[in-house]
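Comment on the following before class.
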Amino acid sequence: MHRPLLLFVVTAVAATAALLAACSSGQTALKHGHFDLAVKKASHRLQQRPGLSKRGHVLAPLVLKQAFERAYEQHQARIRQLSSPTNTDAFRWEIVHSEYEKLQTLTDNARLGFIKHCTTCADWLAAYPTSYDDRRQDTRQLAAADRYEAAEQAFAYREENRLAAKDAYVSYRKANDWVPGYQQALAKAQDAFDFALLRVVVEPLSPTTEISPGDNQELQDLILRQINYNEAPSTFVRLYPPNENAGDGWPIHQAVQMQVTDYSPYNESTSSSSTTVYSTQEYKVGEKKINDSTKVDIKEKVKGTLTTYRREITAGLTLRMRAIDTQTGKTLWEDSVWESRSWQTEWQKFSGDDRALNGSSLKSADLFPPSRWRLYASMRDELADDVVRRIRHKYTSD
C-alpha cells in the first residue's frame, strides 16, 4: 500500500537532481573558465520550464551574467592584442574576425536566455552591442588586404619558383573569399595558376629481361591509358603520358620511371601428410573362447592411414618505380608494386579398413590448374591498376 508514495518520492528526487544538474553544468563551466560554454548552458536552462524546483532559474541568471562579462572581456582583450600596431602576426585579422564571430554567438546566446524567464537580464545586457556586423565587415576587408599583399609578394617570383606561384594562387583565392571581387583577385589567381602546377610525365616502361617485349608493351599501354584518362591527383599536379603534348607547352618538372624487375611465372610444389584414422564404432575382428564350449566376438575400432596430398602453384610479378627531378636527375621517391597469385588443390588416398572412414568420401584433385598465361594476365591487369593508384597517391598532397 505504500508503493505509490514511494514511486512519487523517487520520481520527485530524480526530477530535482536533473534540474540541479542542468543548472550546475553552467556553474561548472564557469568555475573552469569555459565562459562561452557557461553562457550557452545557462541560457538553455532559462529557456526551460521551472519544473518542480526553481533553483535553476534562480542561479542561471547569475551564471549568465558572470560568464558573459568574463567571456566578453576575454574576447575583447584578444582583439586588442591582435589589433595593436606592434603586432606583426601573419594574417592576424582573420583571427580578429573569428573573435568577433564568437562575440556575436555569445551575445545571441545570452539574449535567448532572458526572452522568457529573465526580466533583469535585459538591463545589464543593454550596455553591450547587439550586433558586430560592422566590425566583422571591417575585419574582412583587413583580412582580404593581408592575403592580397602576401599574394602580390609571392606573385613576383612565380616564373622562377613554382611554390611561390602556388602561394600566390592560394592567397589570391583567400582574399576573394574574404571579400568577393577584391581587386580582381580571382583573375590574378588564374594568372598564377599555370606557374603553380607541378607537371609530371610518366615514362614508358624500361626494357626488361623478366617478360617479353610484347608483354612489356602491353603492360605499358594499360598503365599509360589510365594515366591519360584519370583525373588530376590534386589541384596543383598534372600527370602526362609520354607524348608530344606532355606539359601542354610548359616545362616538365618530374618524370616517373618504371621497370618490371621480377617475374616468377609458375612455381609448383607438392606436399603430403598422413594420419591414422579410426572408426567411430567397434566392429567384429575375431572370436575367442571363454570356456571350452562358448565363443564370443572380439570387437575393436578399425583403423587406416589417410594421406592428404597438396599441390600448389604460385606466380609473382614486381614492378619498381621512381620519380626523378628532370633538371637535376635527383631521385625524389622510390616505390615498388607487386602482385601474386596462388592456386592449390588437394586429394586423398587411404589404406587400411575402409570402415575407418566412417562413410566419408576421399577428396579428389582438381584436374584443371590455371595456365601460365592465365596467372600472368590476372596479375598484369591488377598490377596496372595498382601502379596508377600508387602514382596518384604520391601526388595527392602536393
About this structure: Confidence is low (pLDDT under 50) at residues 1-24. The first helix runs from residue 3 to 31.
